[in-house]
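so my prof wants the structure for this chain in the tokens format not the other one, which i didnt know existed until like an hour ago. anyway here's the sequence
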Amino acid sequence: MSVKLSEVMSATHARRASLAAEVAGYLVLAVADQVAGAPRSLGFADVSLGEEGQVKLAGGTPSPDVSAERCLRAMLEAMLLESSSVTPGLMRASQKAAGAGVETLIREIEVALVPVNRAAARRALARLHKDVIRALERGNLAAWQPRVSLSDSPSGAPAPVPEERRPAPPPLPVAAATADATSLSVDLPAVLAEEPEEAAFSEVGSSAFLPREVAVVPVPDELRGEEVKVYVQLKAEESSDTVPPEAIIDFCKANLAAYKIPRFIEYQLTDFERTPSMRVQKKSLLEAKKDLRQGAWDRETGKVKS
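here's what i got, hopefully its the right format
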């Protein structure tokens, strides 16, 4: 039984399927390989994913090569905005103006995915298919529409008129795993709280939400592999009562892409331990407790895990 790409995105949006940026890249690459020989504009309902990770096209409208390229770049961007991680090369490819053609887009995606491993990609896509089937069977899909317009797409749910889009952010750094910390593929502290500008933050009550500092660590998860946990150190005059977890999540939803929104939030009541270079010592956070979810507020349940 195959699933439509629109169903894949609905399951991902509901956090019932894990869509890593690299998997999104390979999926769009498989679509582009087929579109290159017969350019057409596609919607999310025109692409299907099989149980063995095979990608097939059904439908679409013949179109000029540049229109097909534009559609594929928008499709990639929409998927990256829902993915659980981000790859700078793929994000740049998705946001680049169309005009070079589908073949050029294929090369850009391949460069971003170096080393290209299509066999491993098929296995990852097969696992994604399995997650989506499970979500379908349990009725765990969430309504989803792409946040970017597939202007040449003939089918699938039409994209709504987008809200005012902020300028594309600079490429996000890929954090390398170090000896003293296990890092995520997105350097969220840099995005969320390091040298923030006051104007960029939403208001919580009568004061702007501007944390003193945050630290982000990965939390193992059976479904997605990893979830994001953020330790938030508030300013002295603030507390969890004046800045509750829901307010932090609302801020993240208003200012960050989906893949940057943390699932777990824990308030840091003391200063963070530091490395000799004065960076947050994440190793101490990772080793502080056996289950990093314990004592943290869970976005999915709305409760603190005991």
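also thought this was worth mentioning. Residues 188-304 form a domain with the GMP Synthetase; Chain A, domain 3 fold (CATH 3.30.300.30).
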